[in-house]
Queue: 4 jobs
Job 1
Amino acid sequence: MKIKDLPKENIVQKKSFSFALDIVHFYKKLQSEHKEFVLSKQLLRSGTSIGALVREAEHAESRKDFTHKMNIALKEANETRYWLDILFRSEYVSETNYAKLNDEITQLIKLLASIVKSSKLKV
């Protein structure tokens, strides 16, 4: 297979999947080291659903369906930032870990917002 035959890299899919893995590892750490089970579960659910929705949007039935799924992914990303902020302010997350995860979710939010905005213009 030649390089030109390879599928174009889907940056939002790559970033959302990588972020989901980071969230899973962080969730496991919160449970084992801090015995925090409630807030961390909320973070796990919203943080991993972003990538699932992006994957779902890949095979959307229409442009409108694609836009809808990506908009929900954006909402989940925003919710994830909320849970991350709560965990940081309640001192479950170190400043270093918070900065890394917050940077990742901020990038995802910007990317998803841009996709939703441009997708709405095409509908």
Job 2
Amino acid sequence: MKRAFSPQSIYRNFLLLIAGVLLVFLAACSRDADYKQVDFSKKTEALRTEGVNSGRQTLRVAVAAMISPKETFIYYRELIDYIGVKLDRDVVLVQRKTYGEVNDLLSRKHIDLAFICTGPYVTGNEKFGFEAIATPVIRGQPVYQSYLIVHRDSPFQTLEDLKGRDFAFTDPDSNTGATVPRYWLKQMGAKPESFFRTITYTYSHDNAIMAVAKKLVDGAAVDGHLWEYYQLRNTFYSDKTRVIKKSEPFGSPPLVVSNALDPGLKSALVHIVLTMHEDPEGLRILSGLMIDRFETPRAAWYAPVKTMMDRLSQDDAKGGDGSNKP
């Protein structure tokens, strides 16, 4: 049965859409537009003539649009350029809105290196053989958490208080922005579609924080690293929100490479990334991203995500309501 949407919920979704369009427009007008963009709607053969014309080999790098606050994108650009200089390769930056799109490009061997979320890494690693080469260490830890946030002035203190309210997920494949809150609800014997009044996908942790701050939604689940970034660097929206629940720690979103990448190139990439904190210029770039250094990933950091996904998939396969009741 189709759900009925109130005029208020339609208005909220409209405002979120407009906000997202504005953020995309502003990003397009920034220095990031200087990069050569690759249009993957074209035939694969066309890729040989895309990008730069220096005669050097290229490194194709993807960054999902929701991977970081827009304020940090200049540092991601510098990080990518740093790697390109060290490899003596020209960088071709590929931007996509969703994690699913980036996973698809990796699976088709259209990109070499990607910044993706922990959730898509776990699913892509299993399905397509993506390989994580480095995990960022932030505030001394190679892990992060999902934060459940509400407006600072709201009366909500727990997830249970948000029953019948309007909620924002980020990307459907996001670990912190979708998988974790769905798993929390499963533990309560509920599913988002019946627990919340309306569900909105913001496709950006920035937009999710902003939506709560502007009271467009009552709650959202976001990447804890990004919320903490705003609390330190730009509190305009995050200061209007309040964290009421944190998840267990998970391995931070890793840098991944295609399984088709040349072994020699992969080895060089690993060395550059894992040692860049020892170089003053590399350390400056990492500091802008609030990253201490990169570390070799460990499977145990990502195992809890796989467990959550498996349990949610079992419920979906059974057509259940997420309940643990017999």
Job 3
Amino acid sequence: MTQAHRIVVLGGGSGGLELASALAGRAGRAGLAVTLVDRVGSHLWKPRLHEFAAGTVTSTLSEISFYMLADMRGFRFEQGCVEAIDRSRRTVRLASITGADGESLADARDVAYDTCVVALGGQTADFGTPGVAGNAIRLDAKADADAFRERFVSLMIHARETGRAAKIVIVGSGATGTELAAHLRVAERAFFDRAGEPPDRLLEITILEAAAEIMPGSDEALREGILERLSALDVAVVTGAKISSVERGEVRSAAGHWPADITVWAAGSSGLPVLARLADFNLDAKGRIRVDEHLRTDIDERIFALGDAASLTLPGEERPLPPTAQVASQEAAYLAGVLPETIEGRVVLPFRFKDKGKLVSLGRAGTVGLLGLGRRNDVFIDGQFATAAYNALQRQHQWAVLGPLRGSLAIFADMVSPARGPALKLHG
């Protein structure tokens, strides 16, 4: 009996989980055995972390157990922190698991592979700015969102009781920063006294951007649409603010300083530090693994990388593809299609990215974005159509992860859920 070809996917983010689910769906036919590895036991769609932080989660399936998904889709799940890849032995080393008291709960172990895909994601870069690590929150994982929400709720209760508005400063005007600001304004309403007139603001929100304009590199129509809606939400935006340090209770630049009860650092993305320790990968300036047009690393034909962990510069382009869920999803779909053929020694076409646009959800102020219809004719959209397009992004993810039948049922359950719509979530 021929042994199944072992594919190990490191990281259960949007790209890694979609890849594992798709490969497992054809495992029997293609002679594959698929294993997904992640340090935590459940999947959270990262584009919604700002909603978890603000407490305005609307989907019942924003978080789902890897163990349940593994049983449902037919892959194996191994929980643990990835320490290293032994390329000669073709094994991935997972660290031992310890409890809160330091007691050893599970020994370190090796997971064997024939093909390995690194999809460990990325993290928010601090650019060496003093004080970020100790005095700011970066929304890289659910634990960060939980920590933010706990502090935010306490501050809002204090603001309601004292009449002193809480001050939140967000560094970075990308999608994470702008969407978080808008959803915090939605969450603020839950603390108003319904018996009387709405009070003065309980929350002051400021977005600081180092560049001369918000969302640098984005289309002018999109920037104007976002600025207009942020103004309607009474969110202050300061550009040209090159941050020199983040202090406890204050953010500083050469030109000024801003008091902050909470500072959120959302200024750019880089590869996880573990990528430099995994193996002798060639990394780009942001610490991401360089890959070719087939998403294969240049040091080992058996190891691929995708998503925020990968650095791919397509022909004719000057910069690598951006670290977005859209890119990761397309790369996952590509690998799901070509890996079985590559394993059999067939020649496959290179990966090509199709930019479907950029959408930003701004809570009560609506959704704005660009619908990608080609490089020269992107269309600016807003209103209900833009909101539907934004929601469709997660619907597509649910479909890819859960499969057509279960994905359709999950989408229907979300649509008819009585919890649908902005609501303050104080727990969980």
Job 4
Amino acid sequence: MSVKTNIPPATKTFDPARRSFLGSAVAAGIALAPGVFLYGIGTAKQVQARSLDEAASSSVRWGMLIDVNRCDSGCDECVTACNTENGLQGHGRPETDAQWIRKIELRDPASGRQNSLPVMCMHCEDAPCVDVCPTGASFKRPDGIVLVDKHTCIGCRYCISACPYKARSFVHEALHDQKTHAPRGKGTVESCTMCVHRIDDDRQPACVEACNSKGGGAMLFGDLNDPDSEISKRVATYATQQIRADLGLNPGVRYRGL
């Protein structure tokens, strides 16, 4: 696993010619090849929630810091909280069931050291899922949160192929009893929204809240652009890692202790 810290902001800009090409590829049925922090005792500095008619601001970059030393392999409070919050119900087929956050186990073959860590959408600054989407359904808000517009998603699944973190799911089943704050739809793609409805209401994501109240306190959420926020102070103080930092995507989710 590559390690990179203090990654500068991405300089790549949107290329309309590439989007036009991808749109043509969809129409022609061409198969495209995929492109392929730290928490201690304390709470995140809160940022005043924006009103419903106010656009997300680029002055904020929401992110998470996860200390794997505090993440127990037997704990799945974050997964349970995510499923409950967003109405993710299994259908008895794990290979197709939606999973916005999952726990994975890592083992260093040389030392035998093992780590357990949650993995979800990394909300990349230079998100490949956004880059390959032919309809613009995958998009990134100015505050760094990557989302999917279900009204324009055509279910082509290019974004699933492009994501190096395997963080996106395709909805195969008909859905019932959906949450109004987390719209879903059969035949569309979905992934972790970082509980954007909670963030806009000045609350913590459900996984972070559950981890700190019922789990090991491994997850910290906050504004990476605010030097006075708890998350920024810890990133500046301790060594942190980004999964697949070599890709230069600058994920908004970082880890300590990998």
